[in-house]
Amino acid sequence: MCVFALASCGRGNSQGSAQAASPQKLSQQQKQTQENPQKSALAAVEESLEKAEIPSSDLTAIKQRIEASPDRFFDLLAKVEAVAKQDPYLLKRVDKKKSLPQDYEPGDLVLLDKTGLSVSRPGHRLRKPAYEALVSMSEAARKEGVSLLVSSAYRSYAYQVEVFARNVKEMGQKEAERVSAHPGASQHQLGTAIDFGSITDAFAQTKASAWLVKNAANYGFSLSYPKGMEPITGYVWESWHYRYIGTDATALQTEYFLGVQCYLIQFLDARLS
Ligand SMILES: [Zn+2]
Hints:
By secondary structure, this protein is of the alpha+beta class.
């Protein structure tokens, strides 16, 4: 039986009452007391999953994974929620439906110039936790002969205004919305998103892309707009755009949320808001 059914309906006690005074019965009662918190936790998780705007077939798959190993799920979730509490913008939902305030600017931006990182031009900035993870990731890639070129990082609200207006002018409103974000709706304003390499589909054919697909999650980076997910994410496939969410969150995403960042983020948003 599905653990979510158990969570919703509760488990009936079918054991005989003749054992009421036996040690076996007592230990069973103790066990049920311990199980109850997990049952109510599962019911709360189910409620948030239902609100997270996840397509039903994927929702079923996610529930099955949680059902198959709930202890690991709650362990990771507790770690991720502790991070989200301490640093709310690290896992914040930012997309076409939920925008950042116009005046949001991270307080811990680090300039990437002269840090030894590979950059397309001077002036790129990232939030400290993303920067530190990128340094570790770039060193690991370099040891395997791969260079990770940062072509875009933090973008202010004002800069997004410029980019979006330019795209609308060049390609029209509809196409501009497929390929770029309205001001306030860009993960780049968080200071934790990076565009690597050429920022074109050709990037997917490079050694750097192959390396990132295989290893980025180990450093807390996650591909935001995967191939074939435009109906869900609202954006065309961007093989070059990664967001830093931390290694506990990438583990949760990989093991339970089918590797899809927006499913995890939307779930956390439903749960924490
Ligand atoms: Zn990007």
